[in-house]
Structure formats: structure tokens, C-alpha cells
């Protein structure tokens, strides 16, 4: 009897130990990978970010929206209520690969139906890699109305970065128009074409300064003393080193950013560590993020200018200005100097040099595959389609379908979009990239590239002349769902037999957004290893609106059951359960 009781007690003790171990493990897991929950209300509000009052899209009353701060491995849950009243909505998590959650990418027409007014939609995804990322609207041209923000993902506890600093700060650079996105989109989509023009202001983290004294400006709409347009000020302590995470979500502009009298050391690009190099001004294109280290090592008795200038366009937009504030000087005390004028807008060489200089950190190299299974050359051109001005890839201008591709492909609704595959190349022997094409007519399509799962794909972005003489624009291209290796850049026309021999196989940086420079080419390589449907497009808002994009499908049969919350439009109405 005593022996039986002893065995019972021993068995109970073992069960208790196992239970406590499991409890301990689950507690550890919850510490290592948290769920971070956000509730956002998106609505229009009158704002004056550059002193001029206009309707802006805000998140919980703020534009830019709140920065999402997380740790690698965390799950982000964002409940988005669409209070725009008369507009649909979708939010893209820019740089987050959405491994296993392609329906959370937030690309209307590709991965989901839009969120209709009054509805609440839940985005849930894992941030699987540390780094600096972005989020923004991905419906129509809403991004440039202010729906945007930053995502900052730190390393797991105890894991060190290959550089050190005292403080971590973030700034978002944007350009700002006074016309509504409705007016702009209507002008772009009309036979009587009206270009959006140059932005009125450059904003440094949501703050800029428009000249309210221009005679034609309504004084009731522009107030230079409005506290909303007080210049952005970043306070520093002399002798300290700062990590400054810089993101760009401009609608149009390529930018140069600098802090007067201070060097910047580039250490991260799009979530990947860079072999450090020093710049006095950082060129940054829409959709890119960088981390730079800045040491507060100048005369601490004064403040310094932070300045942002439009490059690659002969822009009328004044430089965006902020204040690099040395404590204890007043944060709004203007520097005693004239702000830096910045580089020449049309000097391509230093922009190309910076692109080439960005290499993977020597201790964090991800070796690219040595060969590719498919090469797609994408000629970027400005065209006409039935009298409308459009942008095209290989003479095909992209149109979004009514039924999102992810749903159409998963449910085999192949009649919902054109099944003729887009071209993998253009007539590179005969096409003159340096002049206006003799025939600028193109076609439209909503067809997509079907990629064989787990294969290696090369994309060659080839720039060319626009419909205007002696004009080639900078196009930043962003790939959803992936990072890619930047294999090389070049001037002129890409030579498919010679240029691949000069690819960088030693230490190519991985990125999700990359510029193709005027009259140049950019080569990138990626693995089609993320099941889903992914957009790849020019990140200039009006260019994508006018057809400058493509879509890739890979491993659709491996995608799990789609949530019904992404449905409700086009042919997916029958699958939707409100």
C-alpha cells in the first residue's frame, strides 16, 4: 500500500515537473515572439504640414502614421477601420516578405479586395527580419495623401549589430501636393492629359514650409505661423553617435538628404547590413530605407540644417529644411548659415556611384545563385494607348483586374484576367533607347508572369527616352514578397552576352527597392520561393497608376486557405462571408 502511494506521488511529481517545464518554455516563447496589437482609424482630416491647409489621410489623427516598433519574430496585428466615408482602402507593409501570409501584403487588386468605407479589416503577419521598413496606402493614389509610416524591427535580445550607436531615431521623407489625389488621377486618366507637376513641398517627417506670401495664395488657407508646419527638429547631444533610419515615400521625387557639416556612414539598406561607407549627402529613392550613423562632433553652440533636395528632375520644389539641434540650444533656433544648396539635379554620376558603392557587409553576405533559370528584360517606356498617355513594360501597359489575382488563381478563375503571358524581352537590337520611339503606341493587359516555384529569376530593368526629347527619368522599382540581389548597374543599353560577365557575385547587397538610372540599366536576381502573387512596379505613384508595373505568380498551389476577409469584389463576391 505504501509502495503504491509512493508510485502515485512520484507520478504526480513527474507530471508537475513536466507541466512547469512546459509553462516555462511557453513563457520563454511568449517573451521571444510577442504579438503587437494596433487599432487604427483611417480618415480624412484637414492638416497643414507645409502651412497650407488641405485634406490629408490620417491614422488615429496623425500623418505620417504611428511608427510600428517590433522585434524580429514578432506577430503584428493591425485592425484598420476605414473611416474615409467615400473611399476604399488597402495598406501595404513595404519590405515585409509575408512568408506564409500572402493575403496580408495589402495590395488591392493583387492580394485582396479593398476595405470598403465603414469596414474594419485585420492585417496579421510576422516580421521575420530586423531592419527598417515602411507602410503605406496601396489603393489608387492614396499614398500621396498622407497614409504612410515606418516600421522599425530590432534584433532578438542578445544579438549584436555590426556597428554601435547611442541613440536610434527615424525620419520619413515625402513630397507634398496641394491638389487632391482625385484631381491628379483624373488629369492622368483623361484624353486631355494633365500631368501632376512638381510637388509644392518636401516634408521631413511630415513637416515642411510653403511660401504663404505668394500673391495668388489664399491667406485663409496658408498660415506661416501654424504650429503644424514648425520645422522638424532632431535634438542631439555633443559627442554622441546617432543611428538615423531614413525612409522615402515620395510620390514623385528622387531626393538628396544631408546634414550640414556632418558626414554620414551608411550601414543598412532595406533591412540588410551594408559594408560601411561615408557620404556627405545620401541619395534616396521612393520606397528605399537606409540607416546612417551620424556623430554629433561639430560646434555645439549652434544648430545645423538638415536639407532635402529633389534630384533627377529639374524641379521647382524648394528644398525641405529641418534643424539638427545641439542640446541645450533651442530646438527651433535657426542655424546662422545659409542652408546647403545640395548637388546638381542633373548630375547622374554621383547617384550611380552611390548605387554601385552599396555592398553587403563582409560578415553578412548572402551568396546569390551563380546562374538563373529565366531572364526577363523590362524596357521602361512612356507610350500612348488609344490616345491616353501611359507607362509600359516591353510595350505593354498594366491594368489591374476586378478580381484580385491571389483569389482568381487559388480558385482557378482564370477567365478573370488575360492568360496571354507578357513578353520576356523587347527588340533590343533595333530599339534606340536614346531617342523618342518612332511608334510610341502600346497595348494594355492585365496578364501576369507565371514563375516556376523555387527557380532563380533575373530581371533587367532597361531605361530609355520618354516621349520628350533628351529626357530619361529615374524609376525606383519595388518588389513585393522578396528581397533580391543587386547584380549590377550600367549606362546605355544592356548587352545580354557581355554585361552578365561583370555581375557582382562576391558581395551584392540585397534590397526590395532599386533605381534604374536615366539611359541606364539595373540587373537584379531573386528566388521565386515565396508562394503567392506579388506586384513589381515603379514606386512613383503616378507612373504605377499609368501602367508601369507587372505581377509575378509563384507556387500558388502551396498557398494555404485564403481568409474570406480579403474577398467581396469582382468574382470573389460569392466566396465572401461578411
From TrEMBL:
<keyword id="KW-1015">Disulfide bond</keyword>
<feature type="domain" description="Plastocyanin-like">
    <location>
        <begin position="170"/>
        <end position="328"/>
    </location>
</feature>
<keyword id="KW-0479">Metal-binding</keyword>
<dbReference type="InterPro" id="IPR011706">
    <property type="entry name" value="Cu-oxidase_C"/>
</dbReference>
<keyword id="KW-0325">Glycoprotein</keyword>
<keyword id="KW-0964">Secreted</keyword>
<dbReference type="InterPro" id="IPR017760">
    <property type="entry name" value="L-ascorbate_oxidase_pln"/>
</dbReference>
<feature type="domain" description="Plastocyanin-like">
    <location>
        <begin position="424"/>
        <end position="555"/>
    </location>
</feature>
<dbReference type="InterPro" id="IPR011707">
    <property type="entry name" value="Cu-oxidase-like_N"/>
</dbReference>
<dbReference type="InterPro" id="IPR045087">
    <property type="entry name" value="Cu-oxidase_fam"/>
</dbReference>
<dbReference type="InterPro" id="IPR034267">
    <property type="entry name" value="CuRO_3_AAO"/>
</dbReference>
<dbReference type="Pfam" id="PF00394">
    <property type="entry name" value="Cu-oxidase"/>
</dbReference>
<feature type="transmembrane region" description="Helical">
    <location>
        <begin position="12"/>
        <end position="31"/>
    </location>
</feature>
<keyword id="KW-0560">Oxidoreductase</keyword>
<dbReference type="GO" id="GO:0008447">
    <property type="term" value="F:L-ascorbate oxidase activity"/>
</dbReference>
<dbReference type="Pfam" id="PF07732">
    <property type="entry name" value="Cu-oxidase_3"/>
</dbReference>
<protein>
    <recommendedName>
        <fullName>L-ascorbate oxidase</fullName>
        <ecNumber>1.10.3.3</ecNumber>
    </recommendedName>
</protein>
<keyword id="KW-0472">Membrane</keyword>
<keyword id="KW-1133">Transmembrane helix</keyword>
<keyword id="KW-0186">Copper</keyword>
<comment type="similarity">
    <text>Belongs to the multicopper oxidase family.</text>
</comment>
<dbReference type="GO" id="GO:0005576">
    <property type="term" value="C:extracellular region"/>
</dbReference>
<comment type="subunit">
    <text>Dimer.</text>
</comment>
<keyword id="KW-0677">Repeat</keyword>
<dbReference type="Pfam" id="PF07731">
    <property type="entry name" value="Cu-oxidase_2"/>
</dbReference>
<dbReference type="GO" id="GO:0005507">
    <property type="term" value="F:copper ion binding"/>
</dbReference>
<dbReference type="InterPro" id="IPR002355">
    <property type="entry name" value="Cu_oxidase_Cu_BS"/>
</dbReference>
<dbReference type="InterPro" id="IPR001117">
    <property type="entry name" value="Cu-oxidase_2nd"/>
</dbReference>
<keyword id="KW-0812">Transmembrane</keyword>
<dbReference type="InterPro" id="IPR033138">
    <property type="entry name" value="Cu_oxidase_CS"/>
</dbReference>
<feature type="domain" description="Plastocyanin-like">
    <location>
        <begin position="42"/>
        <end position="154"/>
    </location>
</feature>
<dbReference type="InterPro" id="IPR008972">
    <property type="entry name" value="Cupredoxin"/>
</dbReference>
Amino acid at each position: 500500500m505504501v509502495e503504491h502511494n509512493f508510485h502515485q506521488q512520484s507520478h504526480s511529481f513527474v507530471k508537475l515537473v513536466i507541466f512547469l517545464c512546459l509553462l516555462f518554455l511557453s513563457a520563454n516563447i511568449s517573451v521571444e515572439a510577442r504579438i503587437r496589437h494596433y487599432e487604427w482609424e483611417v480618415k480624412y482630416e484637414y492638416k497643414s504640414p507645409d502651412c497650407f491647409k488641405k485634406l490629408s489621410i490620417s491614422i488615429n489623427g496623425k500623418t505620417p502614421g504611428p511608427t510600428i516598433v517590433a522585434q524580429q519574430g514578432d506577430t503584428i496585428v493591425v485592425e484598420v477601420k476605414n473611416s474615409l466615408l467615400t473611399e476604399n482602402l488597402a495598406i501595404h507593409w513595404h519590405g515585409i516578405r509575408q512568408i506564409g501570409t500572402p493575403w496580408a501584403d495589402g495590395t488591392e487588386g493583387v492580394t485582396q479586395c479593398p476595405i470598403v468605407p465603414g469596414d474594419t479589416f485585420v492585417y496579421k503577419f510576422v516580421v521575420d527580419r530586423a531592419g527598417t521598413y515602411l507602410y503605406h496606402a496601396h489603393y489608387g493614389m492614396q499614398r500621396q495623401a498622407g497614409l504612410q509610416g515606418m516600421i522599425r524591427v530590432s534584433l532578438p535580445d542578445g544579438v549584436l549589430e555590426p556597428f554601435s550607436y547611442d541613440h536610434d531615431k527615424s525620419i520619413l521623407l515625402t513630397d507634398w501636393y496641394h491638389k487632391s489625389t482625385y484631381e491628379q488621377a483624373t488629369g492622368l486618366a483623361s484624353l486631355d492629359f494633365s500631368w501632376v507637376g512638381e510637388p509644392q513641398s518636401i516634408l521631413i517627417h511630415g513637416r515642411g514650409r510653403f511660401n504663404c506670401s505668394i500673391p495668388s495664395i489664399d491667406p485663409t488657407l496658408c498660415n506661416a505661423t501654424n504650429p503644424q508646419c514648425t520645422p522638424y527638429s532632431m535634438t542631439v547631444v555633443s559627442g554622441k553617435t546617432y543611428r538615423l533610419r531614413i525612409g522615402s515615400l515620395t510620390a514623385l521625387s528622387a531626393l538628396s538628404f544631408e546634414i550640414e557639416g556632418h558626414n554620414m556612414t551608411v550601414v543598412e539598406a532595406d533591412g540588410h547590413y551594408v559594408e560601411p561607407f561615408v557620404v556627405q549627402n545620401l541619395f534616396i529613392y521612393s520606397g528605399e530605407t537606409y540607416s546612417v550613423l551620424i556623430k554629433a562632433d561639430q560646434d555645439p553652440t549652434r544648430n545645423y540644417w538638415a536639407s532635402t533636395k529633389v534630384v533627377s528632375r529639374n524641379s521647382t520644389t524648394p528644398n525641405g529644411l529641418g534643424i539638427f539641434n545641439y542640446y541645450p540650444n533651442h530646438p527651433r533656433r535657426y542655424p546662422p548659415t545659409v542652408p546647403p544648396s545640395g548637388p546638381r539635379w542633373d548630375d547622374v554620376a554621383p547617384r550611380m556611384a552611390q548605387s554601385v558603392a552599396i555592398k553587403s557587409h563582409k560578415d553578412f553576405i548572402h551568396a546569390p545563385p551563380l546562374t538563373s533559370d529565366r531572364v526577363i528584360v523590362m524596357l521602361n517606356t512612356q507610350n500612348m494607348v488609344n490616345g491616353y498617355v501611359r507607362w509600359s513594360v516591353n510595350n505593354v501597359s498594366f491594368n489591374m483586374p476586378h478580381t484580385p489575382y491571389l483569389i482568381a488563381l487559388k480558385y482557378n478563375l482564370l477567365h478573370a484576367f488575360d492568360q496571354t503571358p507578357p513578353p520576356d524581352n523587347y527588340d533590343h537590337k533595333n530599339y534606340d533607347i536614346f531617342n523618342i520611339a518612332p511608334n510610341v503606341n502600346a497595348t494594355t493587359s492585365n496578364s501576369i508572369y507565371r514563375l516556376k516555384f523555387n527557380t532563380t529569376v533575373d530581371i533587367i530593368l532597361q531605361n530609355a527616352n520618354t516621349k520628350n526629347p533628351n529626357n530619361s527619368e529615374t524609376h525606383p522599382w519595388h518588389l513585393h514578397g522578396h528581397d533580391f540581389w543587386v547584380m549590377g548597374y550600367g549606362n546605355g543599353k544592356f548587352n545580354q552576352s557581355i554585361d552578365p560577365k561583370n555581375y557582382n557575385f562576391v558581395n551584392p547587397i540585397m534590397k526590395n527597392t532599386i533605381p534604374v538610372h536615366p539611359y541606364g540599366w539595373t540587373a537584379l536576381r531573386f528566388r521565386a520561393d515565396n508562394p503567392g502573387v506579388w506586384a513589381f512596379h515603379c514606386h512613383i505613384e503616378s507612373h504605377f497608376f499609368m501602367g508601369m508595373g507587372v505581377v509575378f505568380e509563384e507556387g500558388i498551389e502551396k498557398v494555404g486557405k485564403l481568409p474570406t476577409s480579403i474577398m467581396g469584389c469582382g468574382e470573389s463576391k460569392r466566396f465572401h462571408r461578411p
